[in-house]
Specification:
With about 250 residues, this protein is an alpha+beta fold. It has helices spanning about 45-55, 70-75, 80-85, 100, 110-120, 130-140, 210-220, 240-245, and strands at about 1-5, 5-10, 10-15, 20-25, 25-30, 35, 65, 90-95, 150, 155, 160-165, 175-180, 185-190, 190-195, 195-200, 225-230, 235.
Length: about 250
């Protein structure tokens, strides 16, 4: 979905653990650069390429990937993007998330217990080859070098201007991004959209809910016309009012 010229969501769907899951990475571009915010599940590069082409932005124009945080559905296809790209891609993330993305530390939500329980979570009719591959991926998750870290309040001049916002809670170093020219908040997993409504972070997947709710207060400082949530897509209309109510919970 193109929000305005230069910013769009990529709708990426796949069957994950037996059910359809749709995620919404963000693509930003201008005449000089293209930026992908978050890199989907492992193995989704063909879907990313196809979705980018639908916005008339070729994958080989991509020169920057920004990761909002360390979760597997955000970093999964990054190693393949870097491998397949004909040009150097700069990877950006927060300093806190960097060691997890690079594999220096274990992903916080991929505990040994979670890996052990993976077999029970998979559909019983899943072919053994796919079952084995999935468990191997959890045991050795994707990783990639972070070229540069981003600081709270930092402004990136590309693509109409992007402000970095520290929004910890879902993970310790989670960031959101504010696209200045379109007044669009790229929320990552700081919020979700469900049944057409904007909600706070999903408590099932957030490591520190108190901090995650507190982080929403920072978002009220921005004039926002559109919110992109990685889980749920796009919402517009009175979003500042809705965010203020969520932050007051």
């Amino acid at each position: 979905m193109i929000i305005v010229n230069g910013i769009a969501t990529l709708e990426i769907s796949a069957i994950i653990m037996g059910k359809k899951d749709t995620i919404y990475p963000t693509l930003l571009w201008d005449k000089d650069t293209a930026i992908l915010v978050d890199a989907c599940y492992p193995g989704q590069l063909p879907l990313i390429r196809e979705a980018m082409e639908q916005t008339n932005v070729a994958l080989d124009k991509l020169d920057t990937v920004i990761l909002t945080h360390q979760d597997l559905d955000h970093i999964g296809s990054l190693p393949m993007i870097l491998k397949e790209s004909p040009r150097k891609i700069e990877v950006l993330a927060s300093e806190v998330e960097r060691p997890y993305i690079q594999g220096d530390k274990r992903l916080l939500k991929l505990t040994a217990e979670a890996v052990e329980q993976a077999d029970a979570m998979l559909p019983p009719d899943l072919p053994e080859q796919l079952r084995t591959a999935f468990k191997a991926m959890l045991a050795n998750p994707p990783q990639a070098q972070v070229d540069r870290t981003l600081a709270d309040g930092e402004e990136l001049p590309s693509c109409g201007g992007i402000i970095v916002i520290d929004t910890p809670g879902h993970t310790p170093g989670h960031i959101s991004l504010y696209h200045q020219s379109s007044k669009t908040l790229i929320a990552g997993d700081a919020m979700v959209i469900a049944d057409g409504e904007l909600h706070g972070p999903n408590p099932q997947y957030s490591l520190d809910m108190d901090t995650a709710i507190s982080s929403l207060k920072k978002l009220t400082q921005f004039e926002i016309d559109t919110v992109i949530c990685y889980h749920g897509g796009v919402i517009q209309g009175n979003v500042n009012e809705r965010i203020a109510r969520l932050a007051a919970v």
